[in-house]
Amino acid sequence: MPRKKKDKFVSDFVTVDDVCSCGVSAIWSGVGSGKNGFIEGVHEEITNEDGTTTRIDVDGLAEKYRVLLITSRKAKVTETEERHAEDLSPYLTDIRHIDDVNFDEYDNKSLVCTTAHIKRRIEKDYSPSDLASEPFWKKFDFIVIDEFHSLIADATFSDTAFIMKCFVDKIYTDCIKGKKADEIKPKMIFMSGTPQTTEKLIADFEYTKHDLFKKAKYVKPKNLNFTYHKQAITEIQSTLKSGGMVVYYMCLLDKLKELIKAAKDVGIDETQIAVSVSDNKTIKELKTDFPTIHSNIETIEGSLSSAMVIPNNIKFFITNSKNKEGININTIPDLLVIEHHYTDDIIQICGRFRKGVKKAKVIYDCQQFQLPLSYEREEEYQREQGLSAANTYFSKLVKEYDVDLSFITAYQNEDLKRFIDYIEKSTPFIRYNPFTSKFEMNDCYIQARRDYYSGLYWFDDLMNEYSMGASITLSGDFFDDITVTYTPSDEPIYVLKKYFSENGWEIGVTVFNEKQGKKMLKALIKLRNAQPETKSKDYSRLGDILPYFKCKKVRYGRAANKEFQVFLSDDTETN
């Protein structure tokens, strides 16, 4: 967002001296509040209230000290490379070159890389021995981890999060804990715009926290609307038809073809549609089904990384988590549509648009990413039995193969690595820590599962309350000063739920198609009008309702969530 004189950003509250005076600093501040500007430096013109400009020059941490900036998103590395080709030289932009990296070749420059690069580097070169050469992290004055929440958020689909947590613990234990600030190298800085769940990871650390959510300016929409899929498609088409520009963030990729068709139906040419996703299968399908759109991929991704804008000719930009974090987009979309229900995802997506968005919508009836189901007692079993068994057998193999783990990691021995792979493929709850040379519980994954499902349950409950007519009251730093609205769905399931609530009936209903839903609603309205005054409105069994009207082929039962489900056959009849 353009800096104005009255705006305050991270560099206005945190100084280089502040982070030099302690071993660990945590900068918690909203998306777009200038966290990376504090690291890289702020050198720009600001607009005064009278329209004049003032030059701002604030040296960044990386301009005074050697910094290793680690981010969870490759797009961030590419973007930083474009902006700081000379002074902040990114390395390992191609992960295939991991084996060839020599940190000494970069002299005293600050570097930027992804968490995946750190994982590969540790697996390839780390040696636990004190006799080994100095580990790469000690070559830097500061280790800065951007998007620190990714240590939780990414743990559901990547082991990189676990290794990064081990990496952070190793540096804290060996280089920081119990030492005076002037003795510490490297120091660590954690940065996040959504740190609520991640703070648990450093609960045992001594650190200085800079909580700037209520101080530094950050990016969020003025208006946020919760709506349903059918209505969102209608508004997308209306916006496109009137010449507006739309950005759509998919949670899953199942609606991609539908979205492209919806745009083409209102006259949008394939040359005006851009897609940027992280799924290779989808990209291959695009090449076959929509070759023109596929040919736009390189252009859109190049523009986002270099110019930080969506090209002017693009009217409909469809993306997913690939562009959820770590990049700045200076284009102002007329409409931003989000499928994600997890609050942190919504916050991160809205924050990508540094100059704001005109309208933001969240679709509440979109299917969400589902984590693999696991036996409900698996975590308990692995903690009490599996972990011990894995370590016992691992120790046996180390002795049998005569491996000295004080000089190499187990990754560097094919037999030990094969066993590690076997354990990690058999369960997501246990992972190998190369710094302690033993298996440990994957607490990042465990916490991620809990937070993710807790967030989805909260969202579903909230939408259910709104569908019943509850007033909209969202609290929290992000939602402060945002006008939040809810558009009720005309889909039968939502109409039925509201009808039940208004009439005091405590029954949950699952209706599998619109025809069935309309029949059910018609029957219930007839029932309500004819119901005896003495009959209780609090029905605990569907069987108490059905006698009031004639239905054929109806069955009922209790679902796992304790709600009753109603299943109507296609030939259900009502009087």
Say how many strands there are: 19
CATH class of the largest domain: Alpha Beta
In what range is the share of β-strand residues? Answer: 15-25%
Uncertain residue segments: 88-99, 505-512, 530-575
Level-2 CATH architecture of the largest domain = 3-Layer(aba) Sandwich
* Shape field: globular
CATH superfamily of the largest domain: P-loop containing nucleotide triphosphate hydrolases
What quaternary form is this? Answer: single chain
Structural class: alpha/beta
- CATH topology name of the largest domain: Rossmann fold
What topology, given as strand order, has the largest sheet?
11-12-10-13-14-9-17
Radius of gyration: 27 Å
Topology (SSEs and partners):
Elements: H1 16-20, E1 24-28, H2 35-40, E2 42-47, E3 53-58, H3 61-64, E4 67-71, H4 74-83, E5 111-114, H5 115-125, E6 142-145, H6 150-153, H7 160-176, E7 187-192, E8 208-211, E9 223-227, H8 229-241, E10 246-249, H9 256-265, E11 273-276, H10 280-289, H11 291-295, H12 297-306, E12 316-319, E13 335-338, H13 343-351, E14 360-363, H14 378-400, H15 414-426, E15 430-433, E16 438-441, H16 443-467, E17 483-486, H17 492-502, H18 514-530, E18 554-558, E19 564-568
Characterize this entry briefly.
With 575 residues, the chain is of the alpha/beta class. It is 35% helix and 15% strand.
Structural summary, described in words:
This protein is of the alpha/beta class. The chain has four domains: 10-211, 3-Layer(aba) Sandwich (Rossmann fold); 223-370 and 460-486, Rossmann fold (3-Layer(aba) Sandwich); 378-446, no CATH class; 492-568, no CATH class. It contains 18 helices and 19 strands. The chain has a seven-stranded parallel beta sheet with strand order 11-12-10-13-14-9-17, with helices on both faces. A hairpin with a 5-residue loop joins strand 18 (554-558) and strand 19. Helix 8 (229-241) crosses helix 9 (256-265), helix 14 (378-400) packs antiparallel against helix 15 and helix 17 (492-502) runs parallel beside helix 18. The model is unreliable at 88-99, 505-512 and 530-575 (pLDDT under 50).
